[in-house]
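User:
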Amino acid sequence: MPVEKNNSLIKKSFLQTGNNLPLTTKYSFKHPTVGDVLAIDSIHNGIYSEDIYFSMINIFLTDPYLYMVYLDDHEMDYEKTTAYEVFLLLLKDYFKNIENVKDKYDKEQYEILAKNNIYYQAFKFFIGIESFYIATCEGNEVIANDNHLVINSEIYEYIYQFVKMMNGIQDGIRINPADEFAKKILIEDEREKIKKQVNRKINDKTDNNRLGNLISSVTWGCSGGITPFNRNNLHIYDLMEAIERTDKVLRYNHTMSAIHSGFVDTKKIDFEELRWFN
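Assistant: Predicted structure:
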């Protein structure tokens, strides 16, 4: 059975320090600044930094609910699977796919492909290690480097929550099926949604400048001391929090203005929800 999520593993006060997340006595997980993220793709002067960053954090966002179709294809129940188990399964499949194309490349090309994949990039950027492997420790699969433990199931739970909170990622609406039949219908519905999303992405022309828009908003739209000259020093959590908090303040001010003008019925307002310092 999956470990019950403990949403208090990571405190907001810790995220506000900007400190890296300790994993073991040897390793920690990086809390990057805006400048760190923009410098990821230094080879191309940062053109692809945003895309690479979001691809890297995505490998740690392994909510079983969101992978219910993938798990069903592997004959696994998403309600009985942990985020860590999904992470390991995806990791194994990824490297299996790389191994399957080995014959299509010469030795040098294959080594470049194997060492420059998104997992190695993520582990180097966030944890600072050049390589890693899956090992067995006391009957459990763990991630190791040079015979040192890097990640196990308990450590991964911290990483999972740290990445989500740091990047302002919220859980979406969940459907809790009443029985196995309802669960099967849910999975098949999700399978159809995925097919439609794949077809939609082929002709997708939407703006994907999420990080750029956030940086611009916090620089020019917030009333704090963030400027083009210091914004690169802002940690990612503070960037996300500044946007969310400013949005709450604006919503509060607009609502109070409407109340004072007599345009809003105060009986219909949830003032607890309206509080911007929650």
